[in-house]
Each structure stands twice: as C-alpha cells, then as structure tokens.
Amino acid sequence: MADNRRHICGISGGKDSSALAVYLRSKVPKMEYFFCDTGAELPETYEYLTRLEVLLGQPIVRLNAERGFDHWFEVFRGALPSPQMRWCTRNMKIKPIEAWIGDEPAVSYVAIRADEANRKGYISTKPNITSRFPFVEDGVDRDGVMRILEDAGIGLPSYYEWRTRSGCYFCFYQRKAEWVGLADRHPDLFERAVAIERKVLQDAGVSGDADFGDQAMRGRNYTWSGGESLPQLLARRDEILRKHRDSMSRAHRSRQNVPPLEALGDALDEDDDTTPCTVCAL
Fold it and tell me: What is the per-residue DSSP string for 214-229?
C-alpha cells in the first residue's frame, strides 16, 4: 500500500536536528527538510545550513522568510518576546510549520535524543500530523549525535564555540556570558539588539538606568536579559566572564573528561537564564 503521507524533518540549526536530518537521509524516502527563518539568525547558522544542504543533496525549505522578527515586533506594538509572552515561537515557528503542512497527512520527525526522552519539542496537536522520535526509538544519545555529525564530515556549527544552542541572536533565553560572546563576535548584531531594547524602553518611558525589579513584579519585560539592559550587562563583562569560568571549572570537576561542548551546556552561571526554548533549540 502506497504511503501518501508527507515526511518532514525540521532543522533548527542545532546539532540534534542536523544530526537527525543526516540520520534519516537514507532511511526515509522523499523526506522534506525545513527551517523556520526568523530573519534574526546567526551568520554561523546560515552558513551551516548551506553546508547541510550540500550533504543532504537537496534544499532545506525556508519558511517564514518574508515575515520575520521585524514584522511581528510591529504587530505586537514593540513588546519584546519573553518567557511569559513567547509570541516569537508561536508566530515565527509553529504557525509557519502548520501553514506549510496544511491539512495533508504528514509524519513529523522530532530530534529528541534517547538520553532526554522526557523533553518536549514541536509536537503538533493537528490530527493530520503524526510525530515520531527516531533517536528515542533507536537509542541514539548525545554521543551518538556527535558520531553522526563527525562521520558525515560536517561536524558542529561554529557558534558552539561560545553558545550552547541555536536560535535568534537576541534570544531572551541565552546566558549572560553568551550575550558577551555576541558582543565580541558579532558587535553589529549586539548593537541591533541594543537598538531594539532601547526603543522598547523609550516607548515605555523607562530610563535605561532604572531599577527593573518593580517592572518584573508587574510581569512586564523591557529588556532582553534578566532585569538589566544590554549596556548594563556589558558593563559587568569581567564579572560575568569570571562567573562563567568558575561555572565551567565546576562542571569539569564534577564530570571528569567531559567534552568542552558538554561542559558548556552543564555550566550554570548563577545569574543566567538557562531554560531553553523547546521548539528552537534542538
């Protein structure tokens, strides 16, 4: 009996979804690969996607290219996305995916690993979309993901040298040390994030030097990171990097011979925002 369902695999630009794409290329015929382009991705992400397309031997469909962050930022009247109001995930990830699939029967392959089987990625509630978890089914863990990428000759995206996850360059979930990394490696993107934040503060009539504690209590977010503006964060650069180095050392001591990438993921700086976006960060 012919299988008339579409088979789709979302790629975030992170290691797990990229490894899944490689893993499935000879296992699932007529696979469709897609990437939700927010228009605010790191240059390293776009470069990695190009390399991945060469390896897969087919294009990765870009969804949402014409309605990225700037469009939705205006729709939401200059309100920054936040853990409490994640309009970015809903409008730039989930809606474009479901619109692209439409009402056709489809199987969505999700890059949850066997060692994180309790984690949730994008799982549609639409009755025409069935989710499958090949890494969970086949027992592929973090080490298995790394082997897949190494054996394919593509390795990791270069942003893993300083960042623990994929996503927008101004993602509000990124750690404070990663904001410093953005300022060091992509000062133009850091300044764009500052400009967006400054506009929100000005529109709200809030001074950049204000105490954000009361605003946080009211459930309002005017800044990208944890109750301080990006200029204030960067002014604490030495302190942030010192805390991050200390956290990395603790991660190394607690787990002997841990690979650098895993240590980076384990290092939880005391003032960091550490909960990842469950849709963006696979």
Answer: HHHHTT---SSBTTB-
9 phi and psi angles, rounded to 5 deg: -135, 115
Of the pLDDT bands very low, low, confident and very high (cuts 50, 70, 90), residue 77 is confident
Scanning the structure block, which residue is given the tokens 């979930």? 173
The DSSP result for 149-178, as a single string, is HHHHT----GGGGT-SS-SBTT-TTS-HHH
The rounded distance, in Å, linking the Cα atoms of 149 and 161 is: 16
pLDDT band per the 50, 70, 90 thresholds, residue 95: confident
Residue 246 backbone phi and psi in degrees, to 5 = -65, -40
Please enumerate in sequence order all residues whose Cβ is within 8 A of that of 140, keeping only pairs 6 or more positions apart, or say none.
19, 23, 113, 114, 134, 148
Instruction: Calculate mean pLDDT across residues 183-205.
Output: 92
- Ranking 54-58, 76-80, 191-195, 249-253 by mean pLDDT, the lowest is 249-253
CA dihedral 95, 99, 103, 107 (to 10 degrees): -70
Residue 12's contacts (CB-CB under 8 Å, 6 or more residues apart) are 35, 36, 111, 166, 167, 279, 280, 281, 282
Q: What is the CA radius of gyration of the chain?
A: 20
Phi, psi for 148 (deg, rounded to 5): -60, -45
The tokens for 155 are: 């390795």
CA-wise closest residue to 17 among 194, 166, 193: 166
Residue 269 pLDDT > 60: no
What span, in angstroms and rounded, lies between the C-alpha atoms of 109 and 88? 22
Instruction: Give yes or no for a contact between 180 and 237, defined as CB atoms under 8 angstroms apart.
Output: yes
For residue 57 the two structure tokens come to: 């031997």
d(CA 72, CA 68): 7
